């Protein structure tokens, strides 16, 4: 045991220096990869990857959340969604959505991403388009179940996909950029619904049916394009030169610390039996319930503040725009500082203040400010937390399963989001429930930061004591984040 803290610190510095030198020897070409070259390649990947996957996620979030816009556009009346029927229609989406995420991420690794992701997009785009034919409670239930099943693979798939292209320290900003598409979808969804409602009666369809039809068709068209435009892995990307591929693979090898990239069922079980996976699930579910509540019920909440249905559609735009800006800004700073927990805690706290305002204030203007704070606070935390969850799992399969578990189980929170906004006009039950979930995320994030720091110190002490450095990485290749060479991001 190392009992003297100053001595441990000196040994720690010495160990880290030895590790850096050994790492250079281990990868023969690392020394000739400069920081400027790395940044140039990262920017090139950003240009070729991020706009397109952001578009895909925008369409995904738009298709799952547009039911909120359709409701106030007349769906609730035409389909006779009285009582809790709308809540049930909103909720059933999340059951198959949650159950299909882990298998989908395994399939993404087994098959090519450029085939798997476009295929599931075509499937949910067809379902979305056909929802325009659903005029009853039962038919909407069936459509939402199939929408959840077919959409399940996109969000965890793209999150995992990005982790195969970017280092852990670079990925939060990229997840933030593509997740910001969700906030754009919220804003754009309101504007789009406002315009599409004017098609009332055209072709014998109501305005809310046209919302489903047109947005579904756009998704199918984008999916067809994805078959031709989407890239699989850095090693095979046609937009990278041989030198640039070498730079990317070198960066990823350093970041992975030599951990396994191949498929083995034991890596799935490693992720599923790791308590840290479930800590991250708890953090994520406490953040996602507010996100879905904002997406599903902001139009209703704004309307209950006293605004007309048309104005409510338009007034849903500012909270989402503000959330989009903050999501990207927080992702950038989180990567720059290589910190996750403090940004999750800070965002959840801001959102908590927003919900306190919504809970306590009845004046429309003040309550509307609370709605903006709620969105501004919680939206940035999702991207940072997913980057955090991914960085806490070592090896491709273990990481993919852990991310899918966090997103999959976390999405069961959507069921909760669907049933808590039942007491208009103040929605005390809904706002109060979300305040509790945000508080849980804050507490679990504090625990995770403490636990990861404890484990890092333990691993460093083990490496110093046993003389472990990166030259022995092959010994620990299949241990994932249990490897003594693995370090957690705080």
From TrEMBL:
<feature type="transmembrane region" description="Helical">
    <location>
        <begin position="434"/>
        <end position="452"/>
    </location>
</feature>
<feature type="transmembrane region" description="Helical">
    <location>
        <begin position="176"/>
        <end position="196"/>
    </location>
</feature>
<keyword id="KW-1133">Transmembrane helix</keyword>
<feature type="domain" description="Major facilitator superfamily (MFS) profile">
    <location>
        <begin position="49"/>
        <end position="459"/>
    </location>
</feature>
<keyword id="KW-0812">Transmembrane</keyword>
<feature type="transmembrane region" description="Helical">
    <location>
        <begin position="87"/>
        <end position="108"/>
    </location>
</feature>
<dbReference type="InterPro" id="IPR011701">
    <property type="entry name" value="MFS"/>
</dbReference>
<feature type="region of interest" description="Disordered">
    <location>
        <begin position="1"/>
        <end position="21"/>
    </location>
</feature>
<dbReference type="InterPro" id="IPR020846">
    <property type="entry name" value="MFS_dom"/>
</dbReference>
<feature type="transmembrane region" description="Helical">
    <location>
        <begin position="208"/>
        <end position="231"/>
    </location>
</feature>
<feature type="transmembrane region" description="Helical">
    <location>
        <begin position="400"/>
        <end position="422"/>
    </location>
</feature>
<dbReference type="GO" id="GO:0016020">
    <property type="term" value="C:membrane"/>
</dbReference>
<feature type="transmembrane region" description="Helical">
    <location>
        <begin position="314"/>
        <end position="334"/>
    </location>
</feature>
<feature type="transmembrane region" description="Helical">
    <location>
        <begin position="281"/>
        <end position="302"/>
    </location>
</feature>
<protein>
    <submittedName>
        <fullName>Major facilitator superfamily domain-containing protein</fullName>
    </submittedName>
</protein>
<feature type="compositionally biased region" description="Basic and acidic residues">
    <location>
        <begin position="8"/>
        <end position="21"/>
    </location>
</feature>
<dbReference type="Pfam" id="PF07690">
    <property type="entry name" value="MFS_1"/>
</dbReference>
<dbReference type="GO" id="GO:0022857">
    <property type="term" value="F:transmembrane transporter activity"/>
</dbReference>
<feature type="transmembrane region" description="Helical">
    <location>
        <begin position="120"/>
        <end position="138"/>
    </location>
</feature>
<dbReference type="InterPro" id="IPR036259">
    <property type="entry name" value="MFS_trans_sf"/>
</dbReference>
<feature type="transmembrane region" description="Helical">
    <location>
        <begin position="341"/>
        <end position="360"/>
    </location>
</feature>
<keyword id="KW-0472">Membrane</keyword>
<feature type="transmembrane region" description="Helical">
    <location>
        <begin position="366"/>
        <end position="388"/>
    </location>
</feature>
<keyword id="KW-0813">Transport</keyword>
<feature type="transmembrane region" description="Helical">
    <location>
        <begin position="49"/>
        <end position="67"/>
    </location>
</feature>
